[in-house]
Design a protein that fits this description.
- The protein has a five-stranded antiparallel beta sheet with strand order 1-2-4-5-3, with helices on both faces. A five-stranded antiparallel beta sheet has the order 6-7-9-10-8, sandwiched between helices. It has a two-stranded antiparallel sheet with strand order 11-12.
- The protein contains 20 helices and twelve strands.
- It folds into three domains: about 130 residues, no CATH class; about 120 residues, no CATH class; about 160 residues, no CATH class.
- Helix 17 runs antiparallel to helix 18.
- Helices cover about 50% and strands about 10% of the residues.
- It has about 550 residues and is α+β, with helices and mostly antiparallel strands.
Length: about 550
């Protein structure tokens, strides 16, 4: 009977409630693999218990050395293990004779001449070997060899790279992040083919052991920002990381603010653009969304189309988006305040039409708007959660039938339906989903204030919102920068999108190591008059 078998039987008799496997592993974190494969296999059997995908395959390496392969069948490439790896281990290399190999020579032959996969290393710590098994690697234990050989055979099924679902683009790239961390890092490296791109890996979650990659560009990103990101990630001590949103909730500055202080994106091109400005991108294994820090408010209404189009077109599209954002925030509150407190501000003919539409409505304007807003939010949520084939039909039925029926039944006036519809369309124009949710929350607050104090309530609400946004920070960066504090280089890319040659420097609020992003020669070329090479009157002559 081995020591691990005796330990298991003694533990079962003395403790009717044995420790969980993770605590058992923590107790043996300093234990080393001694070379006894039978004792080690017994330990892993006691650790993993009953698992249908846990495989213990006894073999004889080169037909002489007793060994065992350990792996989880659903995490590895089974064809690779059963065909290539097994054949390589069972058949000795041609130069190896029939005699016994010394332990150093056996380890060298196995790692350098037999197992020819990309990632192979040896380790003698039982905890490290167990973690390798959890990742999907295969562990080879040879009797008498005091180190286990870890072979990278992970192959987890994942979806292919497709167009981002939440961030549609007209002229941007069509590839988006997937759930596999290695693929997401590859998408970034494909776009940033520079040795300055750095990827630091961390493991978060006591039970999930989720891999997290901190990506930045050395020589651009401020080292203090990078250190702050790493410190906040290292402070997370939780049993499991469910999604990138779990990390976002731990690293943001103000946890009670409706405004997001960490930007998320599933677009590799957007993450590349933010890295070039000096920000840090956090990738999480198991989720297609990347976290971008620090984040300011202007980022949440910008899209990649703004930069793919020419400056005039990009600025126009951005201004339309800003107008839609303002509509989604204050339009219902302005309607309620004018109808309830200041109807004299409405033109006479239009006021008569509005009064005629509201003649049969039994509710005040604020209650009417709140009922329609709540109904629209319920309809929006139902449309999102239903299957795609049914969701489109429900939205059409909800907008046409329910809206018309509400007007006919006297629950709402036609002008209220129009106001709520324009507000909803404006919220759809906001590119960032979490920023749109923040505006929806504040819209209800402003509507209630407008119903109590009219235009004074609207102004009071806007002042409180502005004060809150001015107090916000994202990793120390003011939330309303580059407007407050003012930065002319950043303002060029806020309300409008200036030509690229007008923006030679990176955003000042990020304090990048290298603030220059446009060469002086390029600026001089674009500031010169065009050469008119094929002008029929004054053609350019070649020198």
């Amino acid at each position: 009977m081995t020591i691990w078998q005796r330990l298991t039987r003694f533990t079962a008799r003395s403790n009717p409630n044995p420790l969980p496997p993770d605590q058992v592993l923590a107790q043996h974190q300093d234990d080393s693999y001694s070379g006894d494969i039978h004792a080690t296999v017994s330990f892993f059997q006691h650790l993993f218990g009953v698992n249908g995908d846990w495989v213990i395959r006894h073999i004889r390496v080169f037909g002489r050395y007793e060994a065992v392969l350990l792996y989880f069948s659903n995490l590895v490439n089974r064809a690779l293990v059963s065909e290539s790896l097994m054949q390589a281990l069972l058949r000795p290399p041609e130069h190896v004779g029939t005699g016994k190999l010394a332990k150093p020579d056996l380890r060298r032959v196995l790692m350098e001449e037999t197992v020819y996969y990309g990632e192979v290393y040896s380790d003698n710590r039982l905890m490290r070997l167990a973690e390798a098994l959890f990742r999907g690697d295969t562990v080879l234990l040879v009797d008498g060899l005091p180190e286990g050989i870890v072979i990278s055979t992970r192959d987890v099924e994942h979806r292919s790279i497709t167009q981002p679902m939440t961030e549609q683009s007209i002229r941007g790239a069509r590839d988006g992040f997937v759930e596999l961390l290695a693929t997401n890092i590859a998408l970034l490296r494909y776009r940033l083919q520079t040795p300055n791109l750095r990827v630091k890996l961390q493991t978060l979650g006591q039970l999930t052991k989720t891999k997290v990659a901190v990506c930045y560009i050395e020589g651009v990103t401020n080292p203090a920002l990078l250190q702050e990101v790493e410190d906040r990630l290292a402070a997370i001590n939780i049993d499991g990381i469910i999604d990138a949103g779990t990390i976002e909730q731990f690293i943001e500055d103000n946890h009670w603010s409706p405004f997001p202080q960490v930007q998320n994106s599933e677009r590799p091109d957007k993450c590349m653009a933010q890295l070039l400005e000096g920000r840090v991108v956090i990738l999480t294994d198991g989720t297609p969304f990347a976290l971008i820090v620090p984040a300011v408010f202007s980022q949440f209404y910008q899209t990649m189309d703004d930069y793919a189009e020419r400056p005039l077109m990009g600025s126009l599209i951005r201004l339309v988006r800003i107008v839609a954002l303002i509509f989604s925030l204050v339009f219902p509150a302005l309607y309620v305040s004018v109808i309830s407190f200041n109807p004299e501000l409405i033109p006479t003919m239009f006021a008569v039409a509005v009064a005629g539409g509201r003649a049969g409505v039994p509710f005040p304007a604020v209650i009417e708007v709140l009922i329609m807003e709540v109904s629209m939010e319920v309809l929006r949520e139902a449309t999102l959660r239903l299957p795609q084939q049914v969701g489109g039909a429900l939205s059409i039925v909800g907008v046409l039938v329910i809206g018309q029926a509400a007007v006919a039944a006297g629950f709402a006036s036609p002008i209220t339906v129009v106001v709520v519809a324009l507000t909803t369309i404006g919220s759809f124009a906001t590119p960032a989903y979490n920023a749109a949710i923040a505006l929806r929350i504040l819209r209800f607050l402003l509507t209630i204030l407008a119903g109590i104090w009219g235009l004074y309530g609207v102004m009071l609400g806007l002042i409180l919102i502005s004060h809150h946004m001015l107090s916000l920070r994202s990793f120390g960066v003011p939330y309303l920068s580059p407007l407050v504090p003012g930065d002319w280089e950043g303002i060029k890319d806020t309300f409008m999108r200036a030509p690229l040659w007008w923006m030679p420097k990176r955003p000042r609020q990020l304090k990048p190591v290298n603030p220059e992003r446009l060469g002086r020669e390029t600026m001089n070329v674009f500031l010169q008059q065009p050469s008119h090479t094929l002008d029929p009157v004054r053609p350019r002559k070649l020198e």
